[in-house]
Design a protein that fits this description.
This protein is mainly α. Helices cover 57% and strands 0% of the residues. The chain has a domain at 15-101. Helix 2 (16-53) packs antiparallel against helix 3.
Length: 163
Protein backbone atom coordinates (compact mmCIF):
# COMPACT_ATOMS: atom_id res chain seq x y z
CA UNK A 1 0.00 0.00 0.00
CA UNK A 2 2.88 2.32 0.61
CA UNK A 3 3.84 2.00 -3.05
CA UNK A 4 0.32 3.12 -4.07
CA UNK A 5 0.55 6.27 -1.97
CA UNK A 6 4.04 6.97 -3.25
CA UNK A 7 2.87 6.57 -6.84
CA UNK A 8 -0.11 8.87 -6.23
CA UNK A 9 2.12 11.48 -4.62
CA UNK A 10 4.57 11.29 -7.54
CA UNK A 11 1.70 11.59 -10.01
CA UNK A 12 0.30 14.68 -8.19
CA UNK A 13 3.68 16.40 -7.94
CA UNK A 14 4.50 15.81 -11.60
CA UNK A 15 1.02 16.78 -12.82
CA UNK A 16 1.25 19.72 -15.25
CA UNK A 17 -2.21 20.85 -14.14
CA UNK A 18 -0.95 21.50 -10.61
CA UNK A 19 2.08 23.49 -11.76
CA UNK A 20 0.09 25.58 -14.23
CA UNK A 21 -2.43 26.36 -11.51
CA UNK A 22 0.38 27.36 -9.16
CA UNK A 23 1.68 29.79 -11.81
CA UNK A 24 -1.80 31.28 -12.22
CA UNK A 25 -2.10 31.50 -8.46
CA UNK A 26 1.19 33.41 -8.24
CA UNK A 27 -0.13 35.89 -10.80
CA UNK A 28 -3.46 36.36 -8.96
CA UNK A 29 -1.68 36.67 -5.62
CA UNK A 30 0.35 39.58 -7.00
CA UNK A 31 -2.81 41.11 -8.50
CA UNK A 32 -4.58 40.88 -5.13
CA UNK A 33 -1.58 42.40 -3.40
CA UNK A 34 -1.73 45.39 -5.77
CA UNK A 35 -5.48 45.70 -5.20
CA UNK A 36 -4.86 45.91 -1.46
CA UNK A 37 -3.12 49.22 -2.16
CA UNK A 38 -5.51 50.50 -4.86
CA UNK A 39 -8.82 49.85 -3.11
CA UNK A 40 -8.02 51.98 -0.01
CA UNK A 41 -7.05 54.86 -2.32
CA UNK A 42 -10.43 54.55 -4.04
CA UNK A 43 -12.16 54.48 -0.66
CA UNK A 44 -10.37 57.62 0.54
CA UNK A 45 -11.11 59.44 -2.72
CA UNK A 46 -14.76 58.46 -2.51
CA UNK A 47 -14.98 59.69 1.09
CA UNK A 48 -13.37 63.02 0.19
CA UNK A 49 -15.65 63.49 -2.81
CA UNK A 50 -18.67 62.58 -0.70
CA UNK A 51 -17.68 65.08 1.99
CA UNK A 52 -17.14 67.88 -0.52
CA UNK A 53 -20.09 67.32 -2.85
CA UNK A 54 -22.52 65.50 -0.56
CA UNK A 55 -22.83 62.68 -3.10
CA UNK A 56 -20.64 59.81 -4.20
CA UNK A 57 -18.93 59.67 -7.58
CA UNK A 58 -20.74 57.09 -9.71
CA UNK A 59 -17.71 56.39 -11.92
CA UNK A 60 -15.50 55.81 -8.91
CA UNK A 61 -18.23 53.69 -7.31
CA UNK A 62 -18.51 51.51 -10.44
CA UNK A 63 -14.72 51.20 -10.71
CA UNK A 64 -14.44 50.27 -7.03
CA UNK A 65 -17.21 47.70 -7.39
CA UNK A 66 -15.51 46.15 -10.41
CA UNK A 67 -12.18 45.95 -8.57
CA UNK A 68 -13.75 44.46 -5.46
CA UNK A 69 -15.62 41.90 -7.60
CA UNK A 70 -12.34 41.03 -9.32
CA UNK A 71 -10.61 40.73 -5.93
CA UNK A 72 -13.37 38.37 -4.80
CA UNK A 73 -13.06 36.22 -7.94
CA UNK A 74 -9.28 36.07 -7.61
CA UNK A 75 -9.46 35.12 -3.95
CA UNK A 76 -11.95 32.36 -4.75
CA UNK A 77 -9.47 30.99 -7.27
CA UNK A 78 -6.58 31.26 -4.81
CA UNK A 79 -8.36 29.31 -2.08
CA UNK A 80 -9.53 26.61 -4.54
CA UNK A 81 -13.19 27.62 -4.15
CA UNK A 82 -13.46 27.64 -7.94
CA UNK A 83 -11.45 26.45 -10.91
CA UNK A 84 -12.67 29.34 -13.07
CA UNK A 85 -9.86 31.78 -13.64
CA UNK A 86 -10.68 35.51 -13.36
CA UNK A 87 -9.75 38.09 -15.99
CA UNK A 88 -7.36 38.29 -17.96
CA UNK A 89 -7.32 34.51 -18.37
CA UNK A 90 -11.09 34.24 -18.76
CA UNK A 91 -13.60 35.80 -21.12
CA UNK A 92 -14.04 38.77 -18.74
CA UNK A 93 -17.84 38.94 -19.06
CA UNK A 94 -18.34 39.36 -15.31
CA UNK A 95 -15.89 42.25 -15.15
CA UNK A 96 -17.43 44.03 -18.12
CA UNK A 97 -20.89 44.04 -16.53
CA UNK A 98 -19.74 46.42 -13.82
CA UNK A 99 -18.97 49.13 -16.38
CA UNK A 100 -22.04 48.70 -18.57
CA UNK A 101 -24.75 51.34 -18.26
CA UNK A 102 -27.66 48.99 -18.76
CA UNK A 103 -29.61 50.26 -15.76
CA UNK A 104 -29.76 46.79 -14.23
CA UNK A 105 -27.97 47.91 -11.08
CA UNK A 106 -28.91 46.39 -7.76
CA UNK A 107 -29.47 49.89 -6.47
CA UNK A 108 -31.85 52.35 -8.16
CA UNK A 109 -30.21 55.54 -9.41
CA UNK A 110 -31.98 57.71 -6.85
CA UNK A 111 -31.05 55.36 -4.00
CA UNK A 112 -27.40 56.31 -3.68
CA UNK A 113 -25.95 56.46 -0.17
CA UNK A 114 -26.25 60.25 -0.23
CA UNK A 115 -29.92 60.03 -1.27
CA UNK A 116 -30.60 57.58 1.55
CA UNK A 117 -28.82 59.92 3.96
CA UNK A 118 -30.90 62.86 2.76
CA UNK A 119 -34.09 60.83 3.13
CA UNK A 120 -33.14 59.85 6.66
CA UNK A 121 -32.23 63.40 7.63
CA UNK A 122 -35.52 64.75 6.32
CA UNK A 123 -37.36 62.74 8.98
CA UNK A 124 -37.40 63.34 12.72
CA UNK A 125 -33.83 64.22 13.65
CA UNK A 126 -32.98 63.69 17.30
CA UNK A 127 -30.16 66.20 17.09
CA UNK A 128 -32.06 69.09 15.50
CA UNK A 129 -32.45 70.89 18.83
CA UNK A 130 -28.71 70.95 19.58
CA UNK A 131 -26.99 74.27 19.14
CA UNK A 132 -23.32 74.84 19.67
CA UNK A 133 -23.68 78.61 19.72
CA UNK A 134 -26.06 78.78 22.65
CA UNK A 135 -28.42 81.07 20.74
CA UNK A 136 -31.31 78.62 20.45
CA UNK A 137 -33.26 76.78 23.08
CA UNK A 138 -34.86 73.43 22.34
CA UNK A 139 -38.48 73.73 21.31
CA UNK A 140 -39.46 70.18 22.17
CA UNK A 141 -40.91 69.35 25.53
CA UNK A 142 -39.72 66.22 27.22
CA UNK A 143 -41.80 63.14 26.67
CA UNK A 144 -42.47 62.51 30.37
CA UNK A 145 -43.93 65.97 31.01
CA UNK A 146 -41.24 66.99 33.50
CA UNK A 147 -39.47 70.30 32.97
CA UNK A 148 -35.76 69.62 33.33
CA UNK A 149 -34.62 73.22 32.82
CA UNK A 150 -32.74 74.72 35.70
CA UNK A 151 -32.62 78.31 36.70
CA UNK A 152 -30.43 79.90 39.34
CA UNK A 153 -33.40 81.39 41.14
CA UNK A 154 -35.12 78.03 41.70
CA UNK A 155 -37.96 78.77 39.29
CA UNK A 156 -37.71 75.30 37.79
CA UNK A 157 -38.38 73.77 41.21
CA UNK A 158 -41.43 76.01 41.58
CA UNK A 159 -42.80 74.78 38.24
CA UNK A 160 -42.47 71.14 39.30
CA UNK A 161 -44.14 71.79 42.67
CA UNK A 162 -47.06 73.69 41.10
CA UNK A 163 -47.76 70.88 38.60
Amino acid sequence: MSDDKAEELKKNILSPYQWVRILYMAFYAVACWVLLFVLPVIIVCQVIISLITGDDNSNLRDFGKALSDYFHQAMNYLVYATDEKPWPFSDGEDLGDAFSDSGDDDEPEDETPAARSAAQSSGDDVFDDISFTGDQKPERASDDGVDYTRADDGSADDKKDSA
